Amino acid sequence: MDYEQNAKIIGRGDVVVPVDFLVRSSELETAIFTLPAESSHASVAKARAENVFARCYDLRDWRGQRVAALDDRRLLYRDEDIGRIREVATIVPISQPEAMRDLLLAA
Question: What is the pTM of this model?
Answer without folding.
Answer: 0.90
